[in-house]
Write a structure and sequence with these properties.
By secondary structure, the chain is an alpha/beta fold. The chain has a domain of 213 residues: 3-Layer(aba) Sandwich (Rossmann fold), CATH 3.40.50. The chain has 10 helices and 13 strands. It has a 6-stranded parallel beta sheet, with helices on both faces. The protein has a 3-stranded mixed beta sheet with strand order 11-8-13. Helix 6 packs across helix 8. The longest helix has 21 residues. The N and C termini lie far apart (41 Å).
Length: 309
């Protein structure tokens, strides 16, 4: 992939898209095509099609999506299903029609069955029922992955997918109503510290296990995949290790400097008991995450404080 190759990063104002742009620019890719939501409504088929016909990017990273934590997914399941189907269909098919050479689609580890064996191998997809709390989002992501796979099969075009685990880092959504677990816990402990509170209540038992990948590590993996990965079968991208939500909360408590107690509300759902990806296929190809979770949390908290001060 030449340094002046035209690359469209969909969702560049978001967590993953923004980190991907930073990574591409840092290593010399200068011909990036970027559009904000105000400049290009990805829910509008005609506008997306015209954009691709005019710009004709050679490569596409599809990081645009409607995302949110467990509460948002449970509250707005139809929105998550519909909007993600529309966004990804508009981009993938317009990319195909306009002659895009390679497209990299980002799935999500929530697409795997709720009772999948751990760690989760790529071949476990569609082998059992999904986790109900994020089923709408998961179904949309599965559809996007399968569309890329079928374009690869039928038209011999390199439309490929990867399956990231939970991502966090600078640029994350910190809205308390829609954020994922790390920014949500960081905000609540930060605010509790500022207010001098003695306790923070956390949803679930604290025993659920989750894998977290620092966003700059994911961006590095995406650029690596964009250059090197040519296979029809999607591939997992993760840290290769997990922690319990209780362990995560204790790490965040230490990073934030909150001195109070943590109380876990077991009347609230945990979601899947464990969600750890098997990343052996990617590791065997030469890529591995380098940021440990405590260092990543420290970087995220430093960024977070600049946004709420």
């Amino acid at each position: 992939m030449k340094k002046d190759t035209k690359i469209y990063v969909a969702g560049h104002t978001g967590l993953v898209g923004g980190a991907t742009v930073r990574k591409l620019q840092a290593i010399g890719y200068s011909n990036l095509v970027l559009r904000t939501r105000q400049e290009l409504d990805l829910l509008d088929h005609d506008k997306v099609k015209k954009f691709f016909q005019k710009e004709k990017p050679e490569y596409v990273v599809l990081a645009a999506a409607k995302v949110g934590g467990i509460k948002a997914n449970m509250t707005f399941p139809a929105d998550f299903l519909y909007e993600n189907l529309v966004i990804q269909n508009n981009i993938i098919w317009s990319a195909f029609e306009s002659g895009v050479k390679k497209l990299l689609f980002l799935g999500s580890s929530c697409v795997y069955p709720a009772q999948a064996p751990q760690p989760i191998k790529e071949e476990y997809l569609l082998t059992g029922p999904l986790e109900p709390t994020n089923e709408g989002y998961a179904v949309a992501k599965i559809a996007g992955m399968k569309l890329c796979e079928k374009i690869y099969e039928q038209h011999k075009r390199t439309f490929v997918s990867c399956m990231p685990c939970n991502i966090y880092g600078p640029g994350d959504n910190i809205n308390p109503e829609t954020s994922h677990v790390i920014p949500a816990l960081v905000r609540r402990m930060h605010e509790a510290k500022e207010k001098g509170l003695n306790e923070v209540v956390i949803w679930g038992s604290g025993q659920a296990r989750r894998e977290f990948l620092f966003v700059d590590d994911l961006a590095d993996a995406l650029v690596w995949l964009l250059v090197n990965f040519e296979e029809k079968q999607f591939i997992n991208v993760g840290a290769g290790t997990d922690v319990t939500i209780r362990e995560l909360a204790e790490l965040i408590k230490d990073v934030v400097g909150f001195k109070g107690d943590l109380r876990f509300d077991s009347t609230k759902p945990d979601g899947m008991k464990q969600k750890l990806l098997d990343v052996s296929k990617l590791t065997a190809r030469g890529w591995k995450a380098t940021t440990d979770i405590k260092s990543g949390l420290g970087e995220f908290y430093t960024w977070f404080k600049t946004k709420v001060s």
